[in-house]
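User: I'm preparing a small set of examples for a lab meeting where we compare how different chains pack in three dimensions. I only have the primary sequence for this one, and I'd like the structure in token form so I can line it up with the others. Please keep the answer compact; I'll paste it straight into my notes.
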Amino acid sequence: MIVYIDNHNFHYETENLVRLFFPNEKISIEKEIPKDIVPPYIYTSMRTDDKTVNAHINVRVNMGGFDKTSVKDISLSSKNFEKTAEREMAVCLYTLLSEFTGTKKPWGILTGVRPIKLFRRLSEKNGREYAEGYFRNKLLVSDEKIRLSAWTEENERKILALSKPMSASLYISIPFCPSRCSYCSFISQTADKAKKLIAPYFELLCREIEYTAEIVKEKKLILESVYIGGGTPTTLSAEQMYILIKTVRDNFDMSVCREFTVEAGRPDTIDEEKLRAISEGKVDRISINPQTLNDSVLEVIGRKHTSKQIYDAFALARKIGFGHINTDLIAGLPTDTAESFSKTLDGIFSLDPESITVHTLALKRSSRLTLQGHSVNEDGSAAKMLAICSERLPEKGYEPYYLYRQSRIEGGLENTGWSKKGYEGIYNVFVMDETHTILGCGAGAVTKLKNPYGNELERIFNYKYPYEYISGFEEILKRKEQVKNYYDRLS
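Assistant: Understood. Below is the structure token output for the 491-residue chain.
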């Protein structure tokens, strides 16, 4: 499918919007406009001249016997002209594509990762009623998603109020997994193939944590939350897990830390010894992530465990005394149906986790599903699954507390964290809202330095892969000096 970009800079937003309607099509963006354009095509342009006070937007969709044009004039003196023009062009394009396909997208023309952050900004400036109206009338968001946005933002706001100007959170990356799930595009490596790397990686990771703690003390940062993720952190041995958590506790002032999370993740990596090591480290939140309780779906996505192992892992975690267990589900997995997804929810409710994160399948370019030619399911099954969640989770006492979206996500939908009151995962809110500095340790981790008095962000990247992390470790420590320089400039 060819999309022509004529005399404007909105190619990124245009491509993302077209992909919402044609997720399985190869999209070619062309800026050279031929004299005779041959259908099928999508044409977008913006024109101005010295004799007018307006910019003229023109969008044409010509394919499959459908040939319609939408136009809009924007005053050149409009406040935030570029953003207004980009939005109006998106509305013109969305309207035509919606008519051509006979479908509407629940998030309208919104393609960004953080819709709740936008909703909050609009609410703080002009009130919630204005934010809802803007989402509905300017961004074409459905009433269902507006209600979800408003509810999520209300719960998020209470958590964001905990953050102070010198607050920070710590993320620790364990980039190893027992096997690679078919939908995964993360940089994690299977533990069998990377076995020789785990020990040296672990030793250096503890050094990086210690060095990061020195910076936190020197700059008097307040550690609000710690998150050990991956990958699957429980691919580490029980001894390594104990040492890792002890390294954090011995080097940081944990008296002010509100939450310590470890992704126990895959049930085939969980045993009593590891869970006791985590519990002895006074970790107050763990995740056990089945994605589905349908054994046939687990097999299709490359999970090397059964639903029984998930039930057993939950029972073991409860026996040891964990009072906050999160579980992750994915809507839209291959061969899953709305009916079988609802049965998965039945099973999850019987486990009674304190929080449930419902993701929608996103087909990343480097995932095995994508490389094997799996197409985005366009039958609306993922949307049906999320609708089931929106109906059933509140009945069980769960409320949405954070929400984000991803590129290439099925149906242009969303990922939502649901929790019982008092069991929100505050790290998730802080990192998604970009509330305060996130200090990243380990391969693939990104440190995000947040100006506490403005919206500016600076990023410091660690090397992606474990072998790069090991060979380039001294460079990683040098990059950490940028954290000191950043806070020196602020003061």
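A couple of notes for your slides: Residues 204 and 489 are 29 Å apart (CA to CA). The longest helix spans residues 195-218.

User: Perfect, thanks.
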